[in-house]
Every structure is written in structure tokens, then in C-alpha cells.
Amino acid sequence: MTMRETLIAATKDFNLQLSEKQLSQLERYHALLAEWNEKMNLTAITDDEGIAVKHFADSLTLFNYYDIPQNARVIDVGTGAGFPGLVLKIARPDIELTLLDSLQKRLTFLDAVLQELNLDANLIHSRAEEGGQNMNLRESYDLAVSRAVAQLNVLSEYCLPYVRLSGWFIAFKGSAEGELQNAKNAIGILGGKVKSVQNFELPMDGGSRTLIEIEKVRPTPDRYPRPNGKIKAKPL
């Protein structure tokens, strides 16, 4: 099957159904990803089915469990090649999206994709912990999302500072067994509260996935996020 056919099959039972325009946009995104991946390391997953299921469908699972408000301000922290943030924007062009990453070359790629797809997003070149101390970004988003490869206690320190009171941070994880228990202290210190945990299997044997929803119930103390060295040396 083509990437498009695989994506249609993988998302046939999803809450949000993609239009022809959105499918075409994802096809073009896939083509640009393959083209740019030859010049820089954007993804280790390169086959059509892997892109369709493990990147695109995986990103879209958010809409199976959560209602994202119209015109919500969303930040994807450590966005990499744009997952999940850019896929969410394609599916819901009303959201006001910010893509944050520490590598400028990734943002250059994402800017090219946005222009090609006629979409807009704010691109921010910053380390996550530095952006979290930026008063223009701190506690100003309805939703923070991340598929970054970090333990949940570390990921929470990177992401929760961006979230406004009563907003959410949703972590996209593989198997998160054990991580949640280890992260509860960090989540509490940072002003969060675990609201829901969704465990599911991606279609087409795409693997086990977990979405962890953390609500922002108190402001994050000013000292967080700490410098990256301290976060890694002494996780909360």
C-alpha cells in the first residue's frame, strides 16, 4: 500500500477523519521528510508504513481521547521533525501552533514544510529549559505536547512551565510503565496533577503507546525549569 492508503486504513476508526486536502498535505509532508532526511538526520523511520503509522497516525491519536478547544495555543516542545505538532496543525488548522527545537536545521526543514503546505506556525530556536524561563513563553499555552525521548520526570520539568493554569501537558510515550510513579513528585512540584492515562495499541502492529495528561493546577515555581545540567544530574 502507498503511504496514503496505509494512513487511511490506520485511521479509519479514529475520532478525527482526514479530508482529501489533509491527506494530500500529509503526502507532501512525507515526501519532503524523505527528501530532507537524505541531507540530515530527521527520522530513523523511513518506510511508508512506518511514517504513516508510527509518526502520522500516532500523532493523531491525541484526538481519540482529548477535545482540543478551538483556536487553542499549542506548543510542541522538542518537536524534531514536527511530530506531533505539525500533524496536529494539519488536522486542526485552527490551533495556534508553536514548534520549539534546539536545532536550527530542524526548524529550517519545518519552515519549508509549512510554506509548502500553506500553514503557519511560530518557530522557536531554543533549548526547552531556556524557553521555559522566557516570560514571553512561560505559562502562556493551553496545551504543551512532546514526544521527546526523556523520562517523564525530566520531560515534565521541560514542558509544564509553558502551560497556563488549567491548561494541560500531554506526553506521548511508548510503554510508560514505572515512569509515572517515579514522576509524581516532579509533577507535583512543578504545579501539575495527573488527570488521565491512556494505554492503547497503534494499528497495524505499530506498538504499544501511552498518552499521559497532566493538568496545570498551580503556577510553576520560578526556579523551574533549572539549567539542563542540573535537571540531568538531579532529576526531581
UniProtKB/TrEMBL annotation:
Keyword Cytoplasm annotated: yes
Sites where the protein binds S-adenosyl-L-methionine: G78, F83, A128, E129, R147
GO cellular component, one term: cytosol
Entry's localization field: Cytoplasm
UniProt keyword list: Cytoplasm, Methyltransferase, rRNA processing, S-adenosyl-L-methionine, Transferase
Chief location bin: cytoplasm
EC supergroup of this enzyme: transferase
Molecular-function GO terms, alphabetical: rRNA (guanine-N7-)-methyltransferase activity
Pfam family membership, one: GidB
EC number annotated for this UniProt entry: 2.1.1.-
Gene3D superfamilies: Vaccinia Virus protein VP39
NCBIfam families per UniProt: rsmG_gidB
Protein family (similarity comment): Belongs to the methyltransferase superfamily. RNA methyltransferase RsmG family.
Annotated function: Specifically methylates the N7 position of a guanine in 16S rRNA.
UniProt name for this protein: Ribosomal RNA small subunit methyltransferase G
Species in which this protein is naturally found: Ruminococcus difficilis
Originating gene: rsmG
